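Here we describe the complex-level prediction in full. Unlike the single-chain runs in Section 2.1, the two entities below were treated as one system.
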Amino acid sequence: MAKSTLAAPRVVPARRAQPGRLSFNAVMGLMGGIGLLMLIGPTLIVLVTSVTSGYSLKFPPPGLSLHWYEALIFDSPEIIDDLLLSLKLAAAATACATVLAVAAAVTLARRRTFAARLLDSFFMAPLTIPSLALGLGILILFNLESAGLSFYSLLAGHIALCAPYVLYTTSASYAQLDPALLDSSTCLGAGGWFTFRRVVLPGLVPGIASGAFIAFMNSFDNVALSLFLSDARSEVLPIHLWHIIEDSLDVRAAAASGVLIVATLISMLVMERLAGLSRQFR
Amino acid sequence: MNPNHRMPRDWLLVLPLGLFFIAFVGVPLLLVALISLHNDTAMAHVGIRQYMVFFGDSYNRGILWQTLWLGMATTLVTIVLGYPVAHLYVVSPPRWRRVLIVLILLPLLTSSVVRTFAWVVILGNEGLVNALLMTLGHAGQPVKLLYTPLAVILSLAQIELPLMVLPLVTTLTSLDTRLPEASHALGASSWRTWWKITVPLAIPGLLSGTLLVFTGAVSAFVVQTLVGGGQLMYMPFYIYEQAIQTQNYPFAATLAVILLVSVLLVVTLLNYFGRKTRGFVHG
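The structure predicted for the assembly as a whole is:
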């Protein structure tokens, strides 16, 4: 009897491989592979389609050619105009939102009071509420004041859309600042403004830059707000592309998409190098 | 420095953004709510007739249900595909992590019109899927893939996938690795360890991912209109149609309020569960 109880622990030897490890890794690897393919595949397909030599969105394309890019650059002044408007709008909205949101963030980030948290949720609201509801509301507001729609109605909506991103990344950077740095600066006799300019702000720059970049991309991409807020004369690029894809499936939409994908990839890699963009998401 | 002395100047910095948000977020949403409480398009009579009209008609209720269901189905697909991607990221060496994070972020930052366009190309009559089906001999003529609910769910899932992967990556990387190791050492299988230890600890990430994906999916105007086409109606396009094409502002406002309230209800519910599970994980 004593012998068998002594032998019992050997039933589960420590060295034995974990049961189910192979099947677990196989399933995770397979599903993860499908997930990654889903993430990147569509982008690649658009890129391939954009260099088609054919006249439709046939995939795989019958041959390769850059003539849709030529058509886009040389024969499509309306698309170029809308691109410029979108860039101008996104830049203006991001600039305004960054100034407003950074100012608010440096105050809100160091407060844990109820009022600060309430304001913070209010400022983050545009991320949660359907932007069509917000767009409809701003449209009604401009109509009530008989201000009519213009670049400025678009800008107002887009600033509200951009501010949460900058507020979020700036607050997150602020929370990561070493409080000892601020204390040492104050101990060494620096005033509040000097400390802010020379110690706090440099520490916040990567967060602010990443937030501004994400805000810019979102403004540039937005359709729902712009649909309600742009006047009859001005059309932003995403809405123009939306119309093309909805009506005619012109292959120039693929070429324009190709340009946007490459521009996004390059600016993303630059921002990653300069400001550690991906840290904002982890 | 005396904090009381600094306080007023501090709050002054919040003022510009605060005023801007009151004027262009608070007031507009209030206006939407007020206008929804009018019985006629001329907005002469106050009342809740628009809400009665909405909930009295099964067509309208169907659209709301379809929209919310779209959000839920999309969330489910992103969990099924997003969790394994986050898992792959976490078990990868740093070199690969940098590649993976680019793969995850690029679709997030690429214009949603472009990403939706990709699905129009893939699922179109001359698209990739139909080309494959034809060469394999499964179909004599193109199968209608676009403008079906499944196509909308699939493309939305792809577009919202990074928003599920990123919070999961955050949660899984900060997870205490000794817990699954202890479970393994005690003889639990990989599956059991994953289900009993890792998944419960990943719930906060799953919930924040669900929040982002759901709110994004129900208001994804571009995907819903381009992949869903004219046949499939969801709340965002319904709002747009009623406001811009029919010029029925009270009804459009009613739709917006109903969509907004439904989204906020789901968000509140998720936040409630979030707080509960956080207490469970740490306490």
